[in-house]
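Re: your question from the hallway

Yes, I did run it. Sequences:
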Amino acid sequence: LAKTTQPISMDSYEGQEVNITCSHNNIATNDYITWYQQFPSQGPRFIIQGYKTKVTNEVASLFIPADRKSSTLSLPRVSLSDTAVYYCLVGGSLSGGYQKVTFGTGTKLQVIP
Amino acid sequence: KAGVTQTPRYLIKTRGQQVTLSCSPISGHRSVSWYQQTPGQGLQFLFEYFSETQRNKGNFPGRFSGRQFSNSRSEMNVSTLELGDSALYLCASSLASGQGVAETQYFGPGTRLLVL
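Structure:
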């Protein structure tokens, strides 16, 4: 299983763009990169997933360089409600089987008014 | 479509007792995974069930067990509870389409277990 490394915490002012980088040096060829968001006392919520280059959805963008050894979650114009813990996961399915994933320590994002 | 539901939401037990937690996955989802979350250890994978079979298991003692029913609902059991078992237990379901793509997991709200 690929091990991920993220900053423990980050602070940002409302309205700013926030970039959270995750390092995953031993990512495997079939691994995807997935980000989850978790609010206190709730289950994690899927944000975005990608394999390479750039992926964008209505809430975030995910940038993955060519070597795939890192990835960056970009949250545009954050608001107070974006204060949460963000987890980066690396993993994938092999031949239809489910590969157990390991959540890292996550990045606690604090948005300041 | 209804999300993942977990019951009960809160539970208080004493040391030595056993507990059973229930999880109903999203309709059509065939894989159910269980996680334990504590402030000190973070989110830790317990096990995953698919088609009523345990397909993967994390590094937890045998006191932690689970099962999955034919309708994909899953239960998790912890026997001989210890103080350190106090945690938020999360259940997640995924489609398990078997197409070789990383499966997005949909988490329930969790069951908060307090062992006294």
